[in-house]
Design brief:
Rossmann fold; alpha/beta; 7-stranded mixed β-sheet; binds NADP nicotinamide-adenine-dinucleotide phosphate
Length: 964
């Protein structure tokens, strides 16, 4: 196509056209209405604080256990006895099958409760650690003792129990213990256990006397170990949260949070060798809040760069904290990595492929491959023990301080925070030089590791009283060298203890305190030293330092500094180390040839338009709507399955209006395995090959747990439990693209009056994780209330009750739109609902107090009386850990606008005075933050010149207060 002028000359020529299908406005609008409707569970690592408080005299414990859990019970009881608890034991044997046994069980339960039991530990299901496909009874039976418990509490036959339960302060702590009910990081699960666990929360909603808790132990080979049982005992005695998973030495808390979901890539987790040069990866925070390796694009080498495959990398606790909190490290220390050269730029001929090198790492990325200027890379010096290599940068820094800055220090040296990596190196070098070392720590637990390193004059700097103790230790003498990494308050006191003419080295303050220039004394030598800055700004010196320090390390026989070792393939071990270690908080991450799990988003075409889709419950309600939607997505072969669907006019009409396609009705009860097998064979033979299952079948029979019978439990659980198991077994050999279970919000919140339905849906939730962990497709969708179709829409009373509780209706159009997004993203579990959490918290105060919902409820309450811009900000931030990064961004933007400088010129660690902020600008910024976000920073504070980091921290604190 040509554009010509009046004379016919060509002005422009269009040579080709590209046609791209753009999302229509209506698509976007539909997703926008669902912006806050997607939810997922997040597992947050949190350490347990052990108290010394024992059990009180009025505490009385009862253990409920089945035969399967017996092997773990004996050692568990022994541990409880060690803590002064003598629990009673009641077996749940025969409870489910036998009416008489059930009555006897309830009687025994009531007698125990009447006798004063106020802590109940229920070992639900199988604790053996074997992962196997459960039978229907393995899923239902662990639920029944809990139904019996509800009935015992509500209708106690014994007069003493009646009196006890009626006492307003009566509380029964119900602890359900499972093994492998939850999955963290894609590990295998035991799908039979979530139903029983979900009933803990339901019972608490129905019976105010119950305080619920679910503790899940990690699935492992063989019996539960003593260490795990010990953690369980600690959790039972000291834990506060409601939903806990114990994995190794780690403890995770389950919290429901909103999540975002985009149009469409699949998240794939696969194993790769940790040291493969073709697979560069980097540790990042996953959307679920844990740490995971993600692939990074291969770097393009500049002529002066080399690429190093990392073998071992030294990291410290701030690296991990920064990652988890989504912020940059404020104080950097030089870090070394060991590796070998895998590529070189054309100007780097001093290196050959395979050379073993030491690398000075300039950022805090934890990765198996660095691409960097060759001058930060040095051939590994020979003659050192392996464990010493990662410490060379710290020893080099210590050497620089003692010899170059302090001119060959002698006499008495003071090292602030001597258990920091730099402090440790200084201490060791000073001892080797026969200097007298005075050191500080900030936790008593750090005393012993320092003493083990030969340092004995140790003071605690948690407040300033250590300076008085230091004067006592020094007597008439004074210090020859002070190395201080704390702010003004400390520096001022330490200056007074310095001998005339001696050296004071100030490092960047790790306590965030202000650092002004040295006091106006003349008789001392002061140096401000940012070692990281010095090393990284003078790359040429790196090689010299390494060679020089190598000689000193060998001659002075300096030891390797204390540090842990963690395998890159085990991110839980890594977290564990940093959460639990009291020592210097450094670890070497090893990228060996072991494999690491890498999470990646891949664009895989999700819906198979050439295959068949089977929809159970497809002849009515949501199932039928999904069938119609699949046709709009290009699917042409759909099997609609229910027990009596062929009689339903709307289903017949749908089939008749799609004569040209393969849309068929099947009257099949999917709780029958044989019938399900035949159905699958028939579909594969007579229709297109089966590509996906959407499991919507359900029956309802709501009632309170106190009126629930085993039979009613089984009836409602059958289509969702037995039906799912049958569909799974019948399609084991088929290459399915999707296996989607439509679960409910009920299993997350424990909807009152739905014990059987809650348990049934909880099974779907557990099963989806089980299948995904086994490498098969599976998604469970915890769906909220449907406004226009399905069982709630048919029952106006139920719809009104739910609405009054804050659970709002979803439009079918939105649900189908969201379904497409969910299919594209393939999560194991996702919530899709609209809840007014503030109203819900008012109506369901018990659930609202639970750690599972605290995030959502706090946010909703805070939003009720805050400016709209702040409300929007909070809705965007899922977790407090994200506050810093986002507020920093906002503050930088506001500053750039007011001061009129490009955003790139705003540096977070520099004082805002450097940008030339004047009094008018400070008033403008202060007003803007107050009116838009309700955040208070006075103009005076702004004029005092804080760094952007400090200012952001101040705002983070305010925001945190607002949301608590
Ligand atoms: N409606 C809502 O507001 C809502 C909210 C959250 C979650 N959900 C979930 O969404 C799904 C669909 O709900 P809906 O309200 O659309 O349900 P619905 O209209 O009551 O449909 C349920 C279907 O399941 C079929 N079914 C029951 N037992 C079966 C069996 N053994 N074998 C084969 N089919 C069986 C029923 O047909 P026959 O009787 O002919 O067998 C019926 O067609 C359910 O899984 C439900 O838990 C719904």
């Amino acid at each position: 196509m040509k554009l010509l002028d009046d004379q016919g000359n060509t002005l422009a020529e269009l040579r080709s056209l590209e046609c791209t299908l753009l999302a229509s406005e209506t698509d976007d609008a539909a997703v926008n209405t669902l912006e806050e409707a997607f939810y997922h569970y997040q597992w947050t690592p949190r350490q347990l604080t052990l108290s010394d408080e024992g059990v009180t005299g009025s505490d009385s414990w009862l253990i409920l256990s089945s035969e399967q859990t017996q092997p773990s019970i004996k050692p568990f009881i022994a541990l409880l006895e060690g803590r002064g608890i003598s629990p009673k034991l009641l077996t749940t044997r025969n409870v489910p099958d036998d009416e008489k046994a059930m009555t006897a069980f309830k009687q025994a339960l009531e007698e125990n409760l009447a006798a004063g039991v106020n802590h109940l530990i229920y070992f639900a299901g199988d604790l053996e650690g074997e992962q196997h496909l459960p039978e229907f009874t393995d899923v239902v039976n662990p639920c029944l003792p809990l139904i019996a418990l509800a009935q015992s509490l509500d209708n106690p036959a014994l007069a003493t129990l009646k009196t006890r339960v009626k006492e307003p302060e009566f509380q029964l702590n119900l602890n359900i213990v499972t093994r492998g009910a939850h999955t963290i990081g894609g590990k295998p699960t035991n799908p039979a256990l979530q139903p029983a666990a979900s009933l803990a929360h339901l019972l608490a909603n129905e019976l105010s006397a119950i305080t619920p808790r679910h503790i899940d132990l990690a699935l492992g080979a063989g019996a539960v170990t003593e260490a795990e049982l010990q953690m369980l005992v600690n959790e039972l005695l000291d834990g506060q949260e409601e939903d806990i998973a114990l994995q190794g030495e780690m403890r995770f808390i389950r919290e429901l949070t909103t999540t975002t979901i985009d149009a469409g890539e699949q998240r794939i987790v696969h194993q790769i060798p940790a040291n493969d040069p073709l697979n560069p990866v980097q540790l990042r925070k996953s959307s679920e809040g844990s740490l995971e390796f993600q692939p990074i694009p291969p770097a393009i080498l500049r002529p002066d760069e080399v690429q190093v495959q990392v073998e071992r990398l030294l990291i410290d606790k701030p690296d991990i904290d920064a990652l988890l909190q989504g912020r940059r490290k404020t104080h950097q220390l030089p870090r070394l990595a060991l590796g070998w050269i895998v590529a070189t730029g054309v100007d780097c001929d001093e290196f050959a492929l395979g050379d073993e090198v030491l690398v000075l790492v300039k950022d805090s990325a934890i990765t198996n491959q660095y691409t960097l200027n060759h001058r930060f890379c040095h051939k590994r010096p020979k003659g050192l023990s392996e464990a010493l290599y990662p410490d060379l940068a710290f020893y080099a820094a210590a050497l620089y301080m003692l010899d170059d800055v302090a001119g060959g220090a002698s006499g008495k040296v003071f090292i602030q925070n001597a258990l920091s990596p730099l402090g440790l190196a200084l201490g060791q070098l000073a001892l080797a030089r026969k200097l007298t070392v005075f050191a500080t720590i900030n936790q008593e637990a750090q005393r012993q590791p320092l003493q083990a390193l030969g340092i004995h004059r140790i003071l605690n700097n948690k407040d300033l009283t250590y300076t008085t103790d230091l004067i006592d230790l020094l007597g008439d003498s004074r210090l020859d060298l002070v190395v201080n990494d704390l702010g003004n308050e400390h520096a001022t006191q330490l200056f007074k203890l310095l001998a005339p003419g001696k050296h004071f080295i100030q490092l960047p303050a790790v306590d965030g305190q202000e650092l002004t220039a040295a006091p106006a004394l003349t008789n001392y030598r002061y140096a401000y030293l940012d070692i990281f800055q010095s090393f990284t700004s003078q790359p040429g010196l790196f090689a010299q330092w390494i060679e020089r320090v190598k000689e000193v390390v060998i001659n002075d026989n300096l030891p390797p500094l204390p540090k842990g070792v963690a395998n890159a393939g085990n991110t839980i071990e890594l977290l564990n180390y940093f959460m639990l270690s009291d020592d210097a908080g450094q670890a070497v991450v090893e990228f060996t040839d072991a494999s690491i799990a890498v999470s990646e988003n891949l664009a895989v075409p999700p819906i198979d338009r050439k295959g068949s889709y089977l929809i159970t419950g497809g002849t009515s309600g949501l199932g039928l709507q999904i069938a119609k939607w699949l046709l709009t997505q290009g699917v042409e072969s759909i099997a609609l399955v229910s027990r009596n669907g062929s009689n339903r006019p709307e289903a017949r009409e749908f089939v008749e209006s799609n004569q040209g396609k393969q849309v068929r009705l099947f009257d099949v009860d999917i709780t029958n395995l044989e019938a399900t097998n035949n159905l699958i064979q028939k579909i594969n033979k007579e229709m297109r090959p089966l590509a996906g299952i959407i499991h919507c079948a359900m029956v309802l029979d709501d009632d309170l747990a106190v009126r629930m019978t085993p039979e009613r439990m089984r009836n409602v659980m059958r289509p969702k439990v037995q039906g799912t198991l049958n569909l799974h077994k019948a399609t084991l050999d088929l290459p399915l693209r999707q296996f989607i279970c439509i679960s409910s919000i009920s299993s997350l919140i424990g909807n009152v009056g739905q014990a059987n339905y809650v348990a049934a849906n909880a099974f779907l939730d557990g099963f989806a994780h089980y299948r995904q962990a086994a490498g098969s497709p599976a998604t469970t969708i915890n769906l909220g209330v449907l406004q226009e179709i399905g069982v709630v829409a048919r029952d106006q009373n139920l719809a009104m009750v739910l609405d009054a509780k804050g659970i709002q209706g979803l439009l079918t159009e939105d649900v189908l739109q969201a379904l497409g997004y969910i299919i594209n993203n393939d999560p194991a579990q996702i919530g899709l609902f609209k809840v007014d959490w503030a109203l819900w918290a008012q109506q369901s105060p018990r659930s609202a107090a639970s750690s599972r919902f605290s995030n959502l409820v706090q946010k909703a309450r805070a939003r009720q009386d805050i400016p709209p811009a702040l409300a929007a900000l909070l809705s965007e931030l899922e977790h407090q850990e994200q506050y810093f990064a986002r507020l920093l961004e906002i503050l930088s933007g506001e500053l750039a606008q007011i001061v009129k400088v490009p955003l790139s010129e705003i540096k977070q660690d520099r004082s805002i005075s450097d940008l030339g902020i004047d009094s008018i600008m400070s008033v403008e910024l202060s007003r803007g933050l107050r009116s838009k976000y309700g955040l208070e920073v006075t103009s005076m504070e702004l004029l005092s010149g804080p760094s952007l980091d400090q200012l952001t921290e101040q705002l983070v604190n305010q925001l945190t207060e607002k949301t608590c």
